[in-house]
Design brief:
The protein has nine helices and nine strands. By secondary structure, it is α/β, with parallel strands linked by helices. The protein has a single domain, classed as NAD(P)-binding Rossmann-like Domain (Rossmann fold, 3-Layer(aba) Sandwich), CATH 3.40.50. Helix 5 packs parallel to helix 6. The structure holds NADP nicotinamide-adenine-dinucleotide phosphate. The site of NADP nicotinamide-adenine-dinucleotide phosphate has 30 residues, from helix 2, strand 2 and helix 7. Keywords: NADP, Oxidoreductase.
Length: 265
């Protein structure tokens, strides 16, 4: 049933002929994921809100010879999500092999200070968008007959890192959504996994790590003693999408330099 790991050595480690949608690909981790998947041979569509930054990334990928397209989309908008999947469906003839739900953001406050608007914004951007995009993409993923969803959560979904309780709650929910979809959609040949980054150098990470005290507390807890690079996350995301990972589903794997396991850091 479905995809297996029994192909030739080269086809097990290649995404040639596959189609992918990566949300939030103009910067940071999403940008590295688009590039990694394209390097392995996939044709990729991505999206972001800022058109100029998106076009800048698209031009760089074109120069490198990668097959990447993009569209402006705010994944917090239900209508934008429907338009995004309609575009992907028409571009990829109704079939999608890979969906990476990467978009996520944060507001750092104490729990007693969060407003109703903060709550709706973070739940919508980090959780509802990924849930709804997965629902909308389901027929396309099923039609491909060998599909893979990767959610991007965070160490904050597993342990408390004092960067905001709503963020942590959305990421914990993504971990559980991963397990549910892995079981529910296995019959449709869709594997579902989750990658949880630790502290990674990106524009979003920079907003947290610009505070030297916060930076030091993260680094001292990280066993490898440094921040991670976006490319150290994208390599695992790509692996999970490969035919070589055909028996892996329902897992959340942390790329965190040993942050979570380092209880005495
Ligand atoms: N960096 C870290 O240390 C870290 C750690 C753990 C988990 N993560 C997770 O990793 C994922 C990526 O984070 P990052 O650090 O790479 O973030 P980032 O540097 O802020 O980049 C986010 C990307 O998503 C796009 N984006 C943001 N909101 C969007 C929206 N509403 N609709 C469409 N696109 C949107 C951004 O472009 P526009 O702004 O133009 O829309 C950008 O391309 C997130 O889920 C985050 O929670 C990051």
């Amino acid at each position: 049933m479905g995809e297996t790991n029994s192909g030739s050595k080269s086809s097990r480690w290649c995404l040639q002929g596959m189609t992918a949608l990566v949300t939030g690909g103009s910067k940071g981790i999403g940008n590295a994921i688009v590039e990694e998947l394209a390097q392995l041979g996939a044709t990729v569509h991505t999206c972001a809100r800022n058109e100029a930054e998106l076009n800048d990334s698209l031009n760089q990928w074109t120069t490198k010879g990668y097959r990447v397209t993009g569209s402006v989309c705010d994944v917090a908008s239900r209508v934008n999500r429907q338009e995004l999947i309609a575009r992907v469906s028409s571009q990829f003839n109704g079939k999608l092999n890979i969906l990476v739900n990467n978009v996520g953001t944060n507001i750092k406050k104490q729990t007693v200070d969060f407003t109703e608007e903060d709550f709706s914004f973070l739940i919508n951007t980090n959780l509802e968008s990924a849930y709804h995009i997965s629902q909308l993409a389901h027929p396309l993923l099923k039609a491909s007959e060998a599909a893979s969803i990767v959610f991007i959560s965070s160490v904050a979904g597993e342990v408390s890192v004092n960067i905001g309780s709503i963020y942590g709650a959305t990421k914990g929910a993504i971990n559980q959504l991963t397990r549910n979809l892995a079981c529910e959609w296995a019959k449709d040949n869709i594997r579902t996994n989750c990658v949880g980054p630790g502290p990674i150098k990106t524009p979003l990470g920079d907003t947290v790590f610009k505070d030297a005290k916060v930076l030091n507390s993260f680094i001292s807890r990280t066993a490898l003693g440094r921040l991670g690079e976006a490319e150290e996350v994208s390599s695992l995301v790509a692996f999970l999408c490969l035919p070589a990972a055909s028996y892996i589903t329902g897992q959340t794997i942390y790329v965190d330099g040993g942050f979570i396991v380092n209880a005495l850091g």
